[in-house]
Amino acid sequence: MSDVLSHLTVATAKALALPNDERIERIRKPRWIGYPRSKIVLDKLEDLLVYPKMHRMPNLLIVGDTNNGKTMLVERFKKQHPASDNPSGEGISVPVLVIQAPPVPDEGRFYNTILEALFAPFKPNDRVDRKQFQSIKLLRYVGLKMLVIDEIHHVLAGNMNKQRAFLNVIKYLGNELQVPIVGVGTKDAFRAIQTDPQLANRFEPAVLPLWKFDDEFLRLLKSFEMLLPLRHASKLYDTGLAATIFSMAEGHIGELSKLLAEAAVLAVQNGSERIDAKLLKEICWIGPSDRKRQIDRVA
Question: What CATH number labels 36-208?
């Protein structure tokens, strides 16, 4: 690779040959960037995946602010352990199943979600015990090794009786299938799990904190720059520019990814082919705090 394109990975540099519309499409696609804390959590997930079966399986609770990389992390793990046709076995293999908790703690809707994720035919109006039986039978059939429940803080959307009933379902599934369960959610998820002392003892918290303005953040910016197909080096990691970016994203990696994607798209469209302080002022960015204040004023 020439020194002119040394700010890009080899694959990203090749993308410069694409038409602008295709390059913009590439910029807007979600991208995985590993960082130290994500590796720690992924390693914990790997350990749980091969944990010996027992009645009280250990679980994990991945906690972080909204838009701080939780869902992308579990999707990354799922891609590393994909479902397969399992030609040497009796049926398909689904080692990791990722589902989203229903918007309210409802046992029937929870089993509906599992059955839908497995593309299983079912009657939504069936009795809960029938859907429970079908779900457990299918999860055993596909060789499930881990169940991941995203947005688990939705448990708090119901009254205490519904919360307890839903948490009992999670506990029952873990005991019956003898697989680890991973909950993913905001800090409210931790509060939800704590309402059941037995369940709380099984869930180890893994926190994804907001980013700080430090060397690790500068390295993250350098990694982002290497994956954005722009012809000129932006040097996002330069202290002044990095401080501006950090202030706009407010420490959320999801906000950072969206911000840099919008800036990179504009850099392609206006021909500047780099992200600088002037361009960042032109993208009409509204940070998460400002968005919240706007919503609060409307409410």
Answer: 3.40.50.300
